[in-house]
Amino acid sequence: MALLHVGAVCLALWSFVLCSTGIVQCRVLWRFADRTAAASASVTNCTYPDLISATADELESGLKGGCFSSVDLVNQCRLSRSAQAYIARIQEVNSTVHAVTELNPQAVEIAEQLDQERKNGSLRGPLHGLPVLIKGNIATQDELQTTAGSYALLNAQPPSDSTIAAKLRQAGLIILGKADLSQWANFRSFNSSNGWSAYGGQVGSSSGSGVASDLGLAFAALGTETSGSIVSPSEVNNIVGIKPTVGLASRYLVVPISERQDTVGPMARTVKDAAQLLQVIAGPDPKDNYTLASPFGSNLPDYVAACKLTGLQGKRIGIPRNVIAALQEDYMGPYIAAFNAAVSVIAAAGATIIDNTNFTAFDTFNNSTVPDSVLFADFISDLATYLSELKTNPNNLHSLEDVRAFTQHFPLEDYPARDTAVWDAALAAGINNTSPQFWPLYQQNRYFGDEGGVLGALKKYNLDAVILPTDFAYPVPAVVGAPIVTVPLGAYPNGTAVQRSPPWNLVEAAPGIPFGISFMGPLWSEESLIGMAYAFEQRTLVRDKLKRYIEPHTQLKDVV
Ligand SMILES: *[C@@H]1O[C@H](CO)[C@@H](O)[C@H](O)[C@H]1NC(C)=O
Ligand SMILES: *[C@@H]1O[C@H](CO)[C@@H](O)[C@H](O)[C@H]1NC(C)=O
Ligand SMILES: *[C@@H]1O[C@H](CO)[C@@H](O)[C@H](O)[C@H]1NC(C)=O
Ligand SMILES: *[C@@H]1O[C@H](CO)[C@@H](O)[C@H](O)[C@H]1NC(C)=O
Ligand SMILES: *[C@@H]1O[C@H](CO)[C@@H](O)[C@H](O)[C@H]1NC(C)=O
Ligand SMILES: *[C@@H]1O[C@H](CO)[C@@H](O)[C@H](O)[C@H]1NC(C)=O
Ligand SMILES: *[C@@H]1O[C@H](CO)[C@@H](O)[C@H](O)[C@H]1NC(C)=O
Ligand SMILES: *[C@@H]1O[C@H](CO)[C@@H](O)[C@H](O)[C@H]1NC(C)=O
Ligand SMILES: *[C@@H]1O[C@H](CO)[C@@H](O)[C@H](O)[C@H]1NC(C)=O
Ligand SMILES: *[C@@H]1O[C@H](CO)[C@@H](O)[C@H](O)[C@H]1NC(C)=O
């Protein structure tokens, strides 16, 4: 009876609405209904974590206790009444926030396989059976697109999964779908908007991975950063972001900007969840030789064990005040005040604060064209390499010139309203990363991050980390590939004048817009940074104090 009832409700309610999207077919219902009925009969004492805040540990404990299955986490059609976990949550809010460009049609099948393995007593790892979303520039060899937000790459096929995607699967994670991004990771135009792509539209506030993770549209998400693209969307979405050292996690088959700066990292609701995901994606990969520079080889630090309340005890932490002085705008008063209050929390947690550990080359760096020149040169070379690796390249694109010509002639790319000025500048400079002019430029650029920047300050003052408001944190570590962890810090208060960025007028600051604090350290110092970030997070728990303007309502208890 229960079977028929569930099925009838599903077909009646969903066949025209959700099932006709072709995302998840309702026929899967019949395959799962009996097993779940049996499972729920034997389980009497379950709690169902609120999916807006559910941690990996809470979800794994429910899976282990048989309270719900991985299929319950993803399936939308099996269920009675209202609706169903993560896919249903995506359907609730996506028409407003546009965070998820597409769902994986195989998600339920994969979840079923993982549930079966769990039943058999075989777990692939501590995150077995949890759904994640990944940014649309991380390649997967499945039915999902890897477009970097551009029609230029629609239906392009990679030769295999990216190493990162393969690692997620090996660890038992379910790739639930792809998250929208600023097109080409925000490396096309000087007058486009953050979070916009031709393929996926405009994300509500910032890139899809950040929105998705905050709204509990998956257990967590992966982003990529060249300069700011993990930590900024994490900050404005009130979540934790880890930008790993370049080379800690493989970039093989991730649509590139720069081999010297690109890195893939977790965006999650807690430091510990982010650490768990970092543990999965880190490690050497012969297909990305920057990973071979890692001091760890296959013996990674235990990033999860690093999550200790004592993480700040005995640490020496510097504040490069001159960076704040150079970049602070009038409206940022409450942000800087919150940062200064956080400094007291950090000191009270046992750290020694050393103020004015300035980045000596910051003012020159801030006005220099060298950092862009290095990215331009890497992009020309690295994009060509990526395109040459594709198994299917439907638009026959082999170079940045090709991609620019495609973009300027394909109406949905919104050219010229959104220009291609970044590429125009790169091609006009005419330098790629094998040109003789490149090496001196790169050395100049490194100086801004090394002796004249974050690495220099760390050494000179014998520091474990430096801290900054996240808005100001990322440009300097970017040029030397150094790591950053951002943690929620607060939000602009009522009365803040709304700040918009031209030309598309996206809101930069306004009452309720969140901001974060960043911990930055030497190369490969993630273990220590995670400890500090965790100790700060647990003492402040800012995330739970802020209010969203939109939230999905589907919960596991509606589903099971
Ligand atoms: C059910 O769980 C609650 C909280 O976890 C616990 O206090 C209670 O004793 C449990 N009841 C049974 C019957 O196991
Ligand atoms: C989310 O919205 C965007 C923009 O409308 C759309 O392109 C995308 O297909 C939607 N995703 C899902 C999973 O429906
Ligand atoms: C689970 O175990 C059964 C019996 O040992 C086996 O036939 C099946 O293939 C296993 N399933 C998975 C998903 O490992
Ligand atoms: C990686 O390989 C490329 C070419 O094969 C080489 O130019 C580069 O120096 C290598 N990088 C590292 C970090 O080993
Ligand atoms: C660091 O920068 C701050 C702010 O610009 C300035 O007041 C201070 O004198 C500088 N300290 C050093 C040691 O350069
Ligand atoms: C840093 O750059 C910003 C943006 O270009 C500029 O507004 C600001 O004046 C610069 N600050 C310094 C100290 O040069
Ligand atoms: C940097 O450029 C800004 C204008 O864009 C100017 O106000 C500032 O003085 C310059 N800073 C330095 C250190 O040259
Ligand atoms: C890089 O520049 C060299 C000339 O300096 C040229 O031979 C080579 O084709 C260029 N590579 C790419 C990918 O543009
Ligand atoms: C972007 O720049 C292009 C070329 O300069 C211009 O035609 C277009 O109007 C600009 N778009 C906006 C929104 O300012
Ligand atoms: C800010 O304004 C909102 C809406 O008017 C109100 O609900 C909230 O309580 C206010 N918050 C504070 C801290 O005053």
UniProtKB/TrEMBL annotation:
InterPro entries: Amidase_dom, AS_sf. It comes from the Eukaryota. The keyword Ribosomal protein does not apply. Keywords: Signal. Residues 1-19 form the signal peptide. Pfam families: Amidase. Residues 83-529 form the Amidase domain. This is Amidase.
